[in-house]
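Incident log, structure service

09:12 report received: a user says their structure output differs between two submissions of the same chain.
09:20 pulled the input from the user's history:
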Amino acid sequence: MVDSHQLTVLRAVLAAVAPQEGCALLLGHPAGACPGAPAAASLRFTWPCLNVWPQCEQRCERFAIDPREQLMAQKWGRQRGWQVLGTAHSHPSSAAIPSLTDCAWAFAPALMLILGASGELRAWWIADLPGDSSVLPAARELALVLSALRPSAGGEDLGE
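09:34 re-ran on a clean worker, output below:
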């Protein structure tokens, strides 16, 4: 589940760096995190990230998130009872479908949101495949379910 405010923020974050790939971390509650929790994961906050892919000229088709940024987001989220659910990124010149590279670099199991060149935002579940580590994780498309939740608390610490 995601509220419309988070989708608006996410679209703005990912589109802001075009034609480079934008990227962000997704924080919230995993599916079934506690008794009475919804069956679906709940996205509560978008953590904007800088694309630090080492070859600047390839940032139009690749992204990387600084591990220090990941640790800061994890720590900040943990203080609010949230977890890093996955990543979001844009495909400025292609469809909102995970590439083989996206699947290979994902820390499965994880949520992945992709903003495609057409402006379409799609959600994917990157499943962890038990056993053979040479097999790429599988991506399964998810429906984005809008919730009636008010914008997430906690953003005031980042100037929102």
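09:41 both user submissions now match this output. Likely a transient worker issue. Closing.
09:42 reviewer note: The mean pLDDT is 83. The chain is about 20% helix and 25% strand.
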